[in-house]
Structure formats: C-alpha cells, structure tokens
Amino acid sequence: MKVSEILKVKGDTLYTVSPETTLSSAIDLMVEKDIGSLVVMKTGVLVGMLTFREVMKAVHGNSAYGNDQVGQHMEHDVLRITPDTDINEIRRMMLERHARYVPVMDGNVLQGVMSFYDLAKAVLEAQSFENKMLKAYIRDWPSDGAE
User: Do residues 115 and 30 make contact, with C-beta atoms less than 8 angstroms apart?
Assistant: First the structure.
C-alpha cells in the first residue's frame, strides 16, 4: 500500500502556518480544527513542523509562550515522504525518528500530512479486508468428495 492510496481516502485539507505566526494563534488553529500538527511554510517552501510535542515543550515552564513565534519552537529537521512511499517503509521511518506526523511532498509541493493514526487505520482496514477474504475462501473450500 502506498501513501497516495491513503491520501485519496483521507482527503486533501491541509493546515499550514508561517514561522512568524504566534504560537498562541497556531494553538488556537490546532484546537479549532482538532489537529495534532501544522506544516510550517515560508514562501511556499516547507521549513518545519509544529506538533503537539513542540507545543507542550513550549508551554512547559514558559508562562509567556503565547507571544512567541512558531519558528522558535517548530521542528526544523522534518522527515518527509512521497506519495509513492510504501506504508511499511513509513512505519519504519516514523518509529526510528519518533515522528507522529510526516509531510507528504511531491517534489517541493506539499500533498498532505500522514499521521501515525492514518497509518494504523489503513493497516487495520487492509487486515480486516484480508481477513474477510480468507474467511470467505475457507467457507467456500471445495469438497474433495471423500466425506
């Protein structure tokens, strides 16, 4: 299974902010849209990710975080995948990097964001479908006539 297949089901709604966006505005957007990450773009180029993890680090011990800019807290070294990346490769990469959200890039164009939840859901659905097919196959097993 490829990322492009999951993105077709997931939809194409993307939420981005700039590095100059205030952290409080970014948090408001994340809460309003019930999302765990924002892609940080500057002049059309991906420059970072702001996830729940970075927000919690900013909030921890910093009572004035709301006036900070996203660029002060975003992850700079962002793992990226393509629409052709295989789901098993993504799982390995996300586990190695402890990444919960990964932007999907087609060249320099942002196509979507793949979350660990998206991957788990896709794997569960694929396994459920395979399980149904195997049960149907077993149920329809031809008799060998030796009964």
Answer: no
The phi, psi pair for 86, rounded to 5°, reads -75, 145
Nearest Cα neighbor of 79 from 145, 3, 134, 27 is 3
Residue partners of 113: CB distance under 8 A and separation at least 6: 14, 37, 39, 101, 102, 103, 104
Q: How far is CA 121 from CA 3, 17, 106, 125, 126, in A?
A: 13, 27, 23, 6, 9
Could you give all domains of the chain from N- to C-terminal order, each with its CATH number? 3-139 (3.10.580.10)
Claim: this prediction has a pTM higher than 0.90: no
Return per-residue pLDDT of the chain as tens, 147 residues. Answer: 888 888 877 877 899 999 999 999 999 999 999 999 999 999 999 999 999 999 998 888 776 777 889 999 999 999 999 999 998 999 999 999 999 999 999 998 999 999 988 888 888 887 777 777 777 777 777 766 555
Structure-token match 């490769």, residue found: 89
